Amino acid sequence: MRMFRKNLTKKVISSAICGLLYATPFIAACSHAQQANTAAISKLDLARLEKEAQMALEKKEFANAAELFQRIANAAPEVGSYAYNAACAHALKGNVDLAFTWLQRAIDAGFVDVKHSQQDGDLQSLRQDPRWGGLMLSMQKRAEFLGRLWNSSVWKTAYKANLSVDEKVAGLSKFWSEVKYNFVYTNTLRELDWDAVYQRYLPKVRASKSTLEYYKLLMEMCALLKDGHTNVYAPDELYESDFAVTKIRTRLIEGRVFITEVGDQQLIKQGLVAGTEILEVNHRDVHDYARNDLAPYASASTPQDLETRMYSYEFLKGSAKEKPLLEVRDTQGKRHQIKIDRVSFKERNKALSGLPAFSWRMLPNNIAHVALNSFDDDTAAVAYLKAFSEISKAKAIIFDVRENGGGDGGVGFKILSTIAKQDFATSAAATRDYKPSLRAWGNPESLHHFPQSLEAADPQHQFAGKVVVLTSARTYSAAEDFSLAFDLMQRGKIIGEATGGSTGQPLFFDLPGGGMARVCTKLDSYPDGKAFVGVGIQPHHLVRPTIADFHAGQDTVLLAAIKNINE
C-alpha cells in the first residue's frame, strides 16, 4: 500500500487539491478542470475520505477500500498514489483485472516507484500473472522518461576511489542548481550569495584528490545552508571505510560528554561503561574536536540540533583504519586512556540496543508513560491503539517523543486524535512558487501556501484525562509536527527541552559515484506564521537532564512531568 505521508512527509496538505504527490519525486500540476473536480471532493473532506479508506483496509474491507480509493483517484487523477492504492485494494480483494487496470492508471498519472511496487505485499497476488512483467517494464520506462528532466540515470555512475574531474564538477553543479531552484529558504541563499558559494567551491572540487575529499567538500558546502532536511550523503562504500562509527553512544549533559551505552564487552572490561565522561579525543579537548572535526560537515537548523549531531550522531565518526584515542574519567573520578575500534553502521546497530517504535508502562499513581520513539511506519500508532483500552484507564498520559527522529507525520496525528475532542489543526505549509516568465518580467518570486487542513478526532478512542508531552533536541521532523499539533490543541503541557527545529518535505536526487542529496522544499510554521524551524518548539516547562540524576539513574525530565501531573 502506498501511504500518503510516507518518508519524511510530515502531513497531508490537501494532496489531491494541489496535485502534490509526496510519496514520489514526480509531481503533476493541476489543470483547471482537475482543480474543479478536486474542489468537489474537498467539500466532502478529502482527509476524512482517505482515513476512511485506510480504516477499511485495516479492517480487511477491501471492496469498500477499493471503492473509496477509486472515488478519490477519479477526483484527483493527477495524483498517481490514489490509483495505486485502489489497485492494491483490488489485488487484496482478488480482483486481478481491476488491479491491473488501476495500476496502469497509476503509471499514467506519474506513479513510477518500481522498487516499492515489486516489494509491496499487497500486490503479491499479481506477480504470477503474465501481465506483471510487462507492467513493471512499462513503469520502469516511464520512470526513466520522466527522470530525464530532473534526475536522469546519467547521474548514477559507479563508485571509484577518485571520481573524474568532470564527474566532480557535474555533481557540484547538480547540487548547486537543485538548491538554487528548490530550497525553500530563499533568504538564506541571498545571504550566502549561493552563486558566489558555487564559485568558491569550484576550484576546491577540481583540486580534490579523492571521492572522500570531494564528498566532504559537498557536505561542507551543504552545511552552510544550516538546514537539517538538506543533506549530502556519500556513497555506501565511504560509510564502510571512512565514515565508520563506534560501538558506544554518547550525549552532552550540562556541557560535558558522557557515554550512555557501550556495546563492546572488551571495552566494558577495560572500564568503558555508561556514565564514563570523555575529556579528550586524540589528545585534543573534546569540544575542540567536535567544533573543528565534526561541525563543519553537519547540516543542522539550530544550535541544539548541531549539538546533538556533534556529540551524539556524528561523534567519533571516521576512518575504519584508525582507532581514536580517548581520554576518559570514570564514575570514581579516575582518568585513563583507551583506544576504540570503528565499525560499520550495520555492525554498530547489532551491538547497541535499539528502541522500539512504541512501548508503554503504568507508573505509580496511575500515570501511563507512552514512549513514541519512531514514526517511520504505522507501528507506533497501531500498537498504541491496540493497547488503548488499558492505557486509557490511567488518570494521565505522558507521551514521550524525546528519542523520536521523525518519519510519517500521520502516525503521530492518529495518536493525537485519541485525545482530541474535535478536529485539530496542524502546521501551516508553503513552497516556492517559481514561474520563469514572471521572473523574466522582473516580478519577485512568491510563496504558494497550501490550504490549511484539519486532522479528524477519533470518536471510537477518547481519553479525557491529563496529558503531557516530553521533548528534547532529538525530537525531530514528524515528531515536531506531533508536538506542534499538541501545542495547538492546548490539551496539556510540553515539558523538557526545545525540539531540533527542522521539518519539511525533502526532494531527493542522485550524485555521481553512488551518492545522493536532498533539499528541503517546504516551509512549515505555526498557523499564525510563528516559526519553529530554525528555532525549535519551545516547552512550556524547560527541564534539562542533570549530571547528578544521570549518575543516579534518574530521568530528570520524566520526574518533572510526574510532579506536574500530581500537582
UniProtKB/TrEMBL annotation:
UniProt keyword annotations, A-Z: Signal
Pfam families in alphabetical order: Peptidase_S41 (PF03572), Tricorn_C1 (PF14684)
Q: Where is the signal peptide?
A: 1-28
UniProt keyword annotation of Signal present: yes
Q: Does the keyword ATP-binding apply?
A: no
Where are its TM segments located?
none
Entry-linked SMART domains: TSPc
Name all Tail specific protease domain ranges.
333-544
SUPFAM superfamilies per the UniProt record, alphabetical: ClpP/crotonase (SSF52096), HCP-like (SSF81901)
User: PROSITE patterns attached here?
Assistant: PROKAR_LIPOPROTEIN
InterPro entries found in the cross-reference section: ClpP/crotonase-like_dom_sf, Tail-specific_protease, TPR-like_helical_dom_sf, Tricorn_C1
Q: What is this protein called?
A: Tail specific protease domain-containing protein
Q: Which organism is it from?
A: Undibacterium macrobrachii
